[in-house]
Amino acid sequence: MNIGIDLLKTPKEVLSTLCTKHGYPLIKIGSHQVCKVCAKENLEQTNREHKEELQQKLLQHRIHSSGLNQRYLECGFSNYSASTIEQQQVVECCQNFTQQLLNGSKSNLILYGTPGTGKTHLGSAIIRNVIYKTKMSSRYITSAQIAKTIMNSWSIEDQSEEQWIQFFADFDLLVLDEYGLHDRHSSRLELVHKVLYKRYDMMKPTMIISNFVLDALETDLGMRLWSRLHENQLITLPCYWSDYRMK
């Protein structure tokens, strides 16, 4: 029973007994006895709890709508296993990058290295922190998924390539995973680059995750795009340590 709400709509009886907390006459509502201040506090508490519940549901909706799959929904900085100095330095740099995003930075980040080093985990942690601490929109997607989505629009009457490029460019943060894995056809790669160019034009920060070595990434992205990624600071973090999946 919400006593505060019932006080407004239920027949009540004012008693001669005073509230021991507030000193006001108690009001009998059904089987409850409460003063007007207690009733107000009860209503305010109920409203706060309802607001907090709605905020938690909204946060969970944003997390589940971010593109993260089930495996990475709970990935954070706190549950990333950093047992070496190199791992600790990469985690710290990712945390600093996240804080810069929260402060309005437009910088870009590249995590590159061998499989199983936790690059996607760290990308997921950045997305989760951005969503929990700001109203910024964040999206995780693979390079191949971007290309496939845009190419599918070619055969759909009410969709266009430009609409989807704009869709991916609009996110405040885009985490682009598996760059260089399943996007090797020139037409696919061109579409991914169009998204990156559009995000550059809109001054939106992008995180790229790849198994390429850095020189191969520079060559694959091309001189013009590589230059643009540097304009607002490009942070490159190598991830070369043992594959945790193989332990």
UniProtKB/TrEMBL annotation:
The keyword ATP-binding applies. Signal peptide: none annotated. InterPro entries: IstB_ATP-bd, P-loop_NTPase. The keyword Glycoprotein does not apply. It holds the Pfam family IstB_IS21. Residues 80-215 form the IstB-like ATP-binding domain. GO terms for molecular function: ATP binding. Keywords: ATP-binding, Nucleotide-binding. Coiled coil: none annotated. This is ATP-binding protein. It comes from Acinetobacter faecalis.
